[in-house]
Design brief:
The chain starts with a strand and ends with a helix. The N terminus is likely disordered. Strands 1-2 form a two-stranded antiparallel ribbon. The chain contains nine helices and two strands, in the order βαααβαααααα. The protein is mainly α.
């Protein structure tokens, strides 16, 4: 029996994508007025910069789960057409498009969304719980890889010292890519179901603790919602900024 291993009801708590903080005050001025308030058209322009990076990052995350599972003997995702970088195979109309767009257009709200989960049959995976751990870990690692790639491109493009609108848009998209992928990676490492960190923890826990953890897992969504509601997830911005400070000049 297959089950959904991926994050895919995840919160993207990176308000930084929606405001001037994403630009770190270096080169790029945010879209908007001096008061920091943006018009509808400016919000849509900012979303147009964010969405391609968001869509590609989600697709790469899902592809990494599917690729790892297939390598470990489970063809479920491949047979369902999920072993691809084509975003059309991973996109969820509501969670990937409508919800993020709504969050961009409503000031003060934290951005969140989701993609279609990658189905995995654990009975087909070689290595048992360790195989499941590898499949779960593939998602966050893929986002860390993308964060490093976007950071390298940012440093390269920064050397051009351009002043055109296209240049500034490219710089901003690359920086968004760094923060977005760091956020996806670190958030998904939280060991609360249905996040990838729960699959990683299950692969590491001694057998005697598994039953208790499985009982705890049924409250995963409730715990995540509470953490989101009271702002606890914002604490994750500290490691995100720390790593971004290393990656970015």
């Amino acid at each position: 029996m297959s089950y959904e291993i991926d994050i895919n009801k995840f919160f993207l708590f990176i308000n930084r994508v929606k405001n001037k903080d994403i630009c770190q005050g270096r080169l790029i001025k945010p879209f908007g007025s001096a008061t920091g308030r943006r018009s509808m058209s400016q919000n849509l322009a900012q979303f147009a910069l964010f969405f391609p990076i968001f869509l590609f990052s989600l697709s790469f995350h899902e592809f990494s789960h599917a690729w790892t599972a297939n390598r470990l003997g489970d063809p479920t995702a491949r047979l369902l057409g999920r072993l691809t970088l084509n975003p059309l195979h991973h996109i969820d109309l509501i969670g990937t498009v409508l919800f993020p767009l709504m969050m961009f257009l409503m000031p003060g709200l934290t951005l969140f969304g989701w993609a279609k989960p990658v189905p995995v049959n654990p009975h087909h995976l070689r290595g048992g719980r360790v195989g499941n751990l590898k499949v779960s870990l593939a998602g966050p690692l893929s986002n860390l890889l993308l964060a490093g790639l976007f950071a390298a491109l940012f440093r390269f493009v920064l050397g051009w010292q351009g002043e055109t609108t296209l240049y500034l848009m490219l710089i901003q998209m690359l920086e968004i890519g760094v923060f977005l992928n760091l956020s996806l990676a670190i958030f998904n490492l939280i060991p609360i179901p249905p996040l990838d960190g729960s699959g990683i923890l299950v692969g590491l826990l001694p057998d005697q603790y598994l039953e208790g953890y499985y009982r705890f897992s049924q409250y995963g969504f409730i715990l995540l919602f509470i953490a989101f509601y009271i702002g606890l997830l914002r604490l994750l911005m500290y490691p995100i900024h720390w790593i971004a400070g290393i990656l970015l000049p």
